[in-house]
Amino acid sequence: MDNRFYIEVNAELKFHHESRICGDVFLSRRINEENRIIAVLSDGMGHGVKANMLATLTATMALNFTLEHKEVNRIAEIIMNTLPVCSERKMSYSTFTIIDIEFDGKVRILEYDNPQAVIMRGTEIYEPEWTCVMLSGEKNAGKELKSCEFTPEKEDRIVFFSDGVAQSGLGGKYLFGWGRDNVAQYVSELVNHEPEISALQLSHKVVNLAHVNDGYLSKDDTSCGVIYFRNPRRMLVCTGPPFEDHNDSKLAKIVEEFEGRKIVCGATTADIISRELNRHIEDSFDFDDPDLPPISMMDGIDLVTEGILTLGKVTEILKTYNNSTRLTKGPADRIVKMLIESDEIHFIIGTRINIAHQDPSLPVELEIRRTVVKRIARLLEEKFLKEVKVTFI
To answer: pLDDT, tens digit, for every residue of 238-248?
Structure first.
């Protein structure tokens, strides 16, 4: 997909200090056939299981209705009519922020009762024109939503968060809470200090400071999502020898000319590239992961690892990966870290059969590389919203 810029989407969520489940819910989806990304952050009233269920209901409806191109007031009306209302406060039990992005088109933001999103244009705070959407009908008459629309530019960021961020430090460090304006100022300082800060790092820093404001005991579920429009970070993963021997030089040329980070998985593949490019392989004897052979080094290649076992473990790590996952220095962990830090990921898969992997006495987990890579690609696309291209050679 050839876009003017890559769109990085990420979020950090921290639950109330007395809970074990977050009452905020973040959902995102990339719709490749429409060149769209939709992201939703919903905040369930209170905290714990009940808040999580209501926020999940709200976020799911918001994402699906937006996907169907419904008008903003219609989306809001359906959600508000579906959600239960507190009998005492006469308020819906969940708030939401919906961000609908068309690649090379418009960004539309719709908010109900969440703090107003902060939009950065480069290192400056950008204030688009916000409009109010008033709901009608007996149940929702007078309820007000905020909406804005703008055309994104490279290095724009959208930072959106729940009350747990804006109200952190309430009655302590900040008499009336941290507040949206202070959050905006903090985001501006971070971006000015580190102009290329990723969406993941920025969301983490916002939530972490809110946690500090609350004295390391979060008084509410605390969440922050960030969308970052920037140049893509490209990576190549090469595994398996080509089906025909005469394509060895073609494979080496692809690796040599690729602009971005490079990983080679498999001893045979590494030997081919070493031979064709006349580059020495230096082996390491540091067993950072007892389950896998150690990494090797080659000039011009960021990482050289064993093949199918390492890729199999990459799949398992990606399946269970979340914001609390701590990666080690093991070969599979290093690959996962590089994959997550990249945007456009190109897999070159050699299709020559490795006789060693056809032995029926070997473990079932030792599947052929094509199946493993396809699983990794699917996880990267669906779970991490990466742009993935798979080429067989």
So the answer is: 998 998 888 99
> Dihedral of CA 201/206/210/215: which sign?
positive
Helix axes of 308-320 and 331-341: crossing angle, nearest 10 degrees: 60
For the CA atoms of the chain, what is the radius of gyration? 24
**Phi first, then psi: what are they for 6, rounded to 5°?**
-90, 145
Which residue ranges of the chain lie beneath pLDDT 50?
A: 1-2, 362-366
Distance in angstroms between the alpha carbons of the first and the last residue of the chain? 21
| CATH ID of 6-230, from 2.40.10.330, 3.10.20.340, 3.60.40.10, 3.40.50.1970 | 3.60.40.10
**Residue 123 DSSP SS3:** coil
Burial class from Cβ neighbours inside 10 Å (0-12, 13-18, 19+) for residue 88 reads: exposed
pTM confidence score: 0.77
Alpha carbons 96 and 115: distance in angstroms, whole number: 10
DSSP state letter for 93? S
The residue among 298, 314, 303 whose CA lies nearest residue 261 is 303
Within the chain, residue ranges assigned H as helices are 49-67, 72-82, 163-166, 180-193, 199-213, 248-257, 267-277, 308-320, 331-341, 369-382
pLDDT, position 19: 83
Using alpha carbons, list the distances in angstroms from residue 87 to 76, 81, 138, 220.
20, 15, 15, 22
Helices (H), 232-330: 248-257, 267-277, 308-320
User: pLDDT per residue over 40-98, tens digit each?
Assistant: 999 988 888 888 888 999 999 899 989 888 877 788 778 777 776 655 555 557 889 99
Residue 322's CB is within 10 A of a number of other CB atoms, namely 7
Which residues make Cβ contacts (< 8 Å) with residue 265, sequence separation at least 6? 237, 238, 239, 305, 306, 307, 310, 311, 335
Q: What is the DSSP string of 160-225?
A: EE-HHHHTTTBTTTBTT-S-HHHHHHHHHHHHHH-TT--HHHHHHHHHHHHHHHTTTS-SS-EEEE
* Domain ranges across the chain: 6-230, 234-392
